[in-house]
Amino acid sequence: MDNFNNSIGISKDILMKVLKPGDTAVDCTAGNGNDTDFLCEIVKDKGRVYAFDIQEKALLSTKRKLEASGNIKIVKLIKDGHENLDKYIRENIKAAVFNLGYLPGESHIITTKSETTLEAVKKLLKLLYRNGVIIINIYHGHEEGRVEKEALYKLCSKLNQRKYNVFKAQFINQVNCPPELLVIERRV
C-alpha cells in the first residue's frame, strides 16, 4: 500500500495505466515540476506534455528539473493560467493533472481559483480522448481551496454518466485536511 499513502501516489498509478508513449498530456499546475517530469517519463520522446503555471518561479523550477532529467525537449512550458489552455493546445489529450492550491514552500496568497479551474476542466473535457482522464488533487485546507472543492464537486456531479465516470477518493483517518482526489474518465 505504499503507493496509496497520499493522493499523488494514486494519481501516478492511474496515469501509468492510462498514458502510453506517444500520448499528449497536460500538467495544469506545473509547480515544482514533479508531475510534468513524471508525465514526460511516460509519454517519452514521441509524446508531448504541456505545462502551465502563472508563476515564473514555478516555471523556472520545472525547467531546471526537466533539464536535469533530459525531458525538456518533450515539454512546452507556458506562463499562463490553465484556463487559457485552448490558446495553446490544438490536439486531443490522453491525460491532464491538477495539484490545486499554492506553490509548495511559497506564499499562500497566490492560489488556484475555482473560476479558472472550472473553466480549464470544461475545456479539457472537450479535448479528452475516450478513456482519457483528468486527475485533480484538491488541497482544501485554506479558504479558496474549500470554495474550489465545492465548485468542482458541483460540476462533476452534473457530468453525464453515459459520457464520464467521476471517481472521488479521500482519506478518512488523516488530520489537517488531507488532499482529496477527483478523477474524471471519458467513457465515449
From TrEMBL:
GO terms for molecular function: methyltransferase activity. This is Possible rRNA methylase (SAM-dependent methyltransferase superfamily), YTQB B.subtilis. One of its GO terms (biological process) is methylation. Keywords: Methyltransferase, Transferase. It holds the Pfam family rRNA_methylase. The keyword Manganese does not apply. The keyword Kinase does not apply. InterPro entries: MnmM_MeTrfase, SAM-dependent_MTases_sf.
